[in-house]
Inverse folding.
C-alpha cells in the first residue's frame, strides 16, 4: 500500500456473555497477553489490553487494510476458543454480541493507556455499566437500550 499513511487509535470494549465474572485472576493477565498477540498477528499495533472480571478493553492502532469489525470478530473468536481449549471456565465460554469502539487522537494516547491499565482500581469505584454509559455519553453516541450489553444487578 504505497503512499498510504494512517494513524487510527481505537479503544474497543466488549463483555463476557451474561456479564458473568468469568475472567478470574488465575488467567486474566495471560488472556490480555494472548489478545495482544492476536492483534499483533493481524497487523494491528497493540497499545494496551486490560479489563476486569466481566469485560475487556483493547486499545490499538488500526491497520488501514482491516476493518474494525473484522478485528473485533477475530479477537473475540480466537480468545474465546483459547479460553475454552484451556478450560479456564466451567462450561462453554462466550463473549456477548457487539462491542463499543471509540477513536482517540495521538495526543490522548497516554491518558487512554493509563486508564485501561488501571481497570481493577477503576472498578473499585465504578461499575462496568456506569463506565460503558459514560463512554457512550462522552462520545455522544445515540443508542437503543435494547442493543446495549446485558447488564444485571448483582
Amino acid at each position: 500500500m504505497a503512499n498510504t499513511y494512517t494513524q487510527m487509535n481505537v479503544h474497543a470494549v466488549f463483555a463476557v456473555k451474561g456479564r458473568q465474572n468469568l475472567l478470574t485472576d488465575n488467567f486474566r493477565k495471560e488472556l490480555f497477553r494472548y489478545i495482544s498477540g492476536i492483534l499483533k498477528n493481524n497487523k494491528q499495533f497493540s497499545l494496551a489490553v486490560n479489563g476486569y472480571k466481566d469485560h475487556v478493553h483493547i486499545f490499538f492502532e488500526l491497520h488501514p487494510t482491516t476493518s474494525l469489525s473484522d478485528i473485533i470478530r477475530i479477537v473475540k473468536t480466537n480468545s474465546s476458543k483459547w479460553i475454552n481449549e484451556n478450560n479456564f471456565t466451567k462450561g462453554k465460554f462466550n463473549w456477548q454480541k457487539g462491542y463499543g469502539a471509540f477513536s482517540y487522537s495521538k495526543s490522548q494516547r497516554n491518558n487512554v493507556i493509563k486508564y485501561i491499565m488501571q481497570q481493577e482500581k477503576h472498578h473499585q469505584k465504578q461499575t462496568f455499566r456506569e463506565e460503558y454509559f459514560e463512554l457512550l455519553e462522552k462520545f455522544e453516541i445515540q443508542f437503543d437500550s435494547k442493543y446495549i450489553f446485558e447488564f444485571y444487578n448483582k
